[in-house]
Records
---
Amino acid sequence: MKCPYCEASQSKVTDSRDAENGIRRRRECLSCGRRFTTHEQVRLPTLLVEKRDGREQDFDREKLLAGVNMACTRRPIPRRDIDRLVDDIEAELQRLGSGIVQSRDLGLMVLERLRPMDEVAYMRYASVYYDFQNANDFEERARTLREGHPEPLLTVTAISSRRTRQRRTSRRDSSRSGPRA
C-alpha cells in the first residue's frame, strides 16, 4: 500500500475494523511515520446475464432493482423488503460463482420472491416476464396463482447443474478440437 504523503510502499496496519461493504484499515507509513486510512472491498466475480436473444451483458443490480420497483409501485411494500429481495437474488447468484445466468432464470427468481410478498406486484412483474398480450393472459396467470401452482420454481441446484452441463459441453468441444497451438 503506497503512502499518500511520501509514496513509500511499506506501511503497517495499526487498526482494522469491519465497515459497510468492506474493511477499514488504519495504517502507518514506515518511512515518514504519518498515518492514513484505507477501505478495502471484496471484488465479486463478474456475473453475466444471457438475454433471450443470446446476447450477454454484465449483471446490473440497479436494472434488476428498477424492474422490481416498477412492479411494486404504489403497493404497501417497504423499501427495505424490496432491497432485501434484490440482495437475496444477488447473493444467490454470487454463491454460484462467476458465470452466466439466463435472464429467464433471473426473472423466475424475482417471481418466486414476489409471490408471497404481494400478488399485485407479482402479477405486474409476470405481465412483463411472460409478455402478456391481452386480458386473457392476466386471467390465466391469476387462475394459476389462485390454484397455487404458478411457474416452476427455480433453485440454485437447477442453475448450478445447468452451468455444470454447459462447462462439460464446452470442455468436451475444446478437447475434440485437439491440442492448441
---
Amino acid sequence: MKVCQNCGNQVEDSVIFCTNCGVEIKSAEQQAPQSAQPVMQQAPQQNAQQGAPVFVNAQQAPYQQPIVYNDPKDHTNEFDANDIADNKLFGAACYLFEIFGIVIALLVNTPYTRFHAKNAIRYDIALLLCFIPCIIPLLGWLVTGIACLVLFVIKIIAIVWSLQGKAKELPIISDIGFLK
C-alpha cells in the first residue's frame, strides 16, 4: 500500500493518482531524490472543513552573507577614538557659536575639530546663500524663511552628531558641489 503525501490517504500499489485528492502518487524510486524538499501534509478533515497545511521536514533557507551598509558620508572611522572623546564639545562649539566657535575649534587643531569646522563653514555659507531670495518681496521672503528653517534643523542635527562623536557630512549642504 502506498500513502499519498498530500492527504495521507492509503491507496493500492497499482494506483497512480490518489483517489481522495487526485494528486499523483510517486513510487519509492521517484520519492528518494525529493526527500530534501519540504513535504506538505494536511491535517485530517474534520466536519468537512479543511485543516491548515502543515509542513513536514521543511528546511530553513541557507544563510546569506550579511549586507553591510557603509554610509559614504560618515567619516567617524577615519578619526581616533580618543580625539573624538576629547573634542566633542569643540566640535559642537563650531555650530553653536558660529565664527567664534570655528576659530576656537581651529585653535585646538585636531582632525575631528577641523572636520566640524569645515562643516560649520559650509553651513554658514549656505545660510548666507539663503538670504539672496530675500530681495524679492513676498515670495522671496517665504522662500528665505523656509530655507532658514531647513538650515536650522540641519544645525540641530549637526550639533547632536558632534556631541555623539559622529563625523558625518551635513545633509543637503554636503550635496552642493562648490561647497566641497
